[in-house]
Amino acid sequence: MKIEAIDLFYISLPKITRTADGTQDSLVVRVRTDNGLEGWGECDASPLVSMAAYVMPMSHSNIININEALLGETIDSPEDVIRLRNKAGEYGLDIQQLDHAVAGADIAMWDVLGKHLGESVWKLIGHEASYKKLPYASVLFGDNPAETRTIAESIVNRDFRAAKFGWGPMGRGSLADDIALVQAARDGLGPDAKLMVDAGVIWGDNVEIAYERAVAFAELGVTWLEEPLRTEEVGAYKALSDNVRANGVKIGIAGGEGADYFRAADDMMTNAGLDFVQIDVGRIGGITEAKRVADRAHELGIQYVNHTFKSHLSVAASIHVFAGYEEFDLIEYPAGDSPLILGLTAPSGIFRDSDGFVQASDAHGLGVQVNPGAISEYQRMVKIEIDGEVLFESAQP
Amino acid sequence: MKIEAIDLFYISLPKITRTADGTQDSLVVRVRTDNGLEGWGECDASPLVSMAAYVMPMSHSNIININEALLGETIDSPEDVIRLRNKAGEYGLDIQQLDHAVAGADIAMWDVLGKHLGESVWKLIGHEASYKKLPYASVLFGDNPAETRTIAESIVNRDFRAAKFGWGPMGRGSLADDIALVQAARDGLGPDAKLMVDAGVIWGDNVEIAYERAVAFAELGVTWLEEPLRTEEVGAYKALSDNVRANGVKIGIAGGEGADYFRAADDMMTNAGLDFVQIDVGRIGGITEAKRVADRAHELGIQYVNHTFKSHLSVAASIHVFAGYEEFDLIEYPAGDSPLILGLTAPSGIFRDSDGFVQASDAHGLGVQVNPGAISEYQRMVKIEIDGEVLFESAQP
């Protein structure tokens, strides 16, 4: 089949708040083929900047847009998807936004190929099984310990057995303040639930402060301390994880969501001493590249975890990537209440079974359906003109 | 003084050809302050994608546009520029295009600060001297050896003492074809001129093919083999440079233009075994970040070289970055004839002295002036609307 159209949908809540909540908007990508099929993908990225990467005029032979690379191309096998993903990468070699933007098209190509071949994505990308994963509710800290405890209790009430708290006041006050936040999360969750902490790169390159927190949080049974440092501080990460191991501190160091392409992730896996590498399929250029990271993590004995703070379209894309690795047993699971994000794939989704686990579907493609009504409801209509001519204009789904 | 306006100018030749010639368009950034000064910068990046990074709506607290980070801010010292560059990086933590886009504003901020304080940029960023550099004419290979030889002869006729040939047919034929191209360049230049070869990432991750070329080109007196492999193939680079050294092959391995941020460059310097690290100030986020790389290269004993394939505004920004390092004695110098690029700073520029060297200017700021007439002549007028409201509209300079 041939790729006939690539449709870009910028959806957004009416009001965006200045919090680290990625479920307030999204760029959804639809790939349509000449045999009447369609596949869907989602980027975790600025929608407008990413849209521009699909339509912008050529600058030279290494700055050519994504549409130009993909439209009219043939897609009949997994090798085709990989070839086309790489073609977009070559056309856009010098477009920095390329990876964030092409992620949506890559995911949509795997989805439509699965529908075409009657196969699930996890099989197409080479997995032999789809193992159950334990979803952890991914939420932001409350503004104080009391609010954080209330959030934790609500998570337990929703039958989650694991949760990650991040951002908010973490790292903005004293050590005691940080401990109080994590203690509140632990108190609300109870002693048995898994608890992870996401520091949101708050300590920059300060290994000492990060280590102090790692020690304190380990005592509260925290599975991992995520992004204590900025992504690019690879040397500082190494010093931190070396310290943690040398002193027998029982906590993992996690990071990697800032990795925009395979080498950035591999650099962190090889040189930062990570225990968990967290990859956002909607940033790192899609399922094709995320799978490379999962394979590499498996080789290195590092646990691959998805980073996902978007809709169930992204949750689905994420779980296919590492479905076949039994040892990668945790999955980040957005647990907020953004109606845009909850509505996008309703009533389909990656839902928990009676034991509280989730699993990549055996359905054809990704196994979730996009609800065009949700797009219509939340779509922002973009129009880009150059020299008076329309370069791009949003259309209804 | 306060930043009152950030103006974005997308300029382009009327017709863009599909060659690796970066001088066909540009994004020029002007920063205006409340005391009537203005500074100028240039991005080496897709203009439209980068413009979007200045104006796009907020997605969440880590996707906030560059204008929001900089407009209204105070800028009175080098520390202010660094603070503001970092602020834009924090606001845009999850905008992949951030570094390419903010480069223009960063350069413009250094320029306007220099005018404000009556100081050259190289002094403001901490250099104690401005050493002369030998410019190498940076050109593309001809379509065949004969054309390549003609180009080489024209370079000698223009009194260049060094030249770099890149892209074109290099790596697309046999070993003998590649050698014939380089031999033609050497024949045209004569035995004394420095000759460098840019393979334009053509051999991907194939160390063997790249090594074969390195050996052959070394016999033709090639100073360095640039980008034999894709930027992200750090392990392959290391294998190649280890081989070259172990066998006493007299050629340097160069790369780094694909580094979009400091850590990507540091990864290559630390792990790829580079002899020359080539940094584009218009991609890596501006003078602030490029200077960090130059300092680090100095520490590691790797030669820093600029990557520049834009106007003399970029040449100027580039040379300030490493002006004070005497051992970094080569500068890439665009030698094409794009009227847009030649006109942008006319009649000012970074020109060769009677010995054929160039030098960072002692003038206030960058030391080149932008010609608004050239912008008017080549400007493409962009208009971006969201939900019927104008988000951005190009204006005359």
**Largest sheet, spatial ordering of strands of chain A:** 10-9-8-7-6-5-4-11
- Average pLDDT across residues of chain A? 97
Mass-distribution shape of chain A: globular
CATH class term of the largest domain in chain A: Alpha Beta
Write down the domain tally of chain A.
2
Helix content class of chain A: 25-40%
User: How much of the residues of chain A is beta strand, in percent?
Assistant: 15-25%
Mind telling me which CATH architecture of the largest domain in chain A this is? Answer: Alpha-Beta Barrel
The CATH superfamily of the largest domain in chain A bears the name: Enolase-like C-terminal domain
* Overall radius of gyration of chain A: 21 Å
The arrangement of helices and strands of chain A along the chain is EEEHHHHHEHEHEHEHEHEHEHEHHEEE
Largest interface: A-B, 64 and 64 residues
Question: Based on DSSP secondary structure assignment, what is the total number of beta strands of chain A?
Answer: 14
Tell me about the biggest sheet of chain A? 8 strands, parallel
Oligomer state of the chains in this structure: homodimer
Find the structural class of chain A using helix and strand composition: alpha/beta
Count of DSSP H/I helices of chain A = 14
Our measurement of the CA-to-CA distance between the termini of chain A, rounded to an integer number of angstroms, reads: 21 Å
Pick out the low-confidence regions of chain A.
Answer: none
CATH fold label of the largest domain in chain A: TIM Barrel
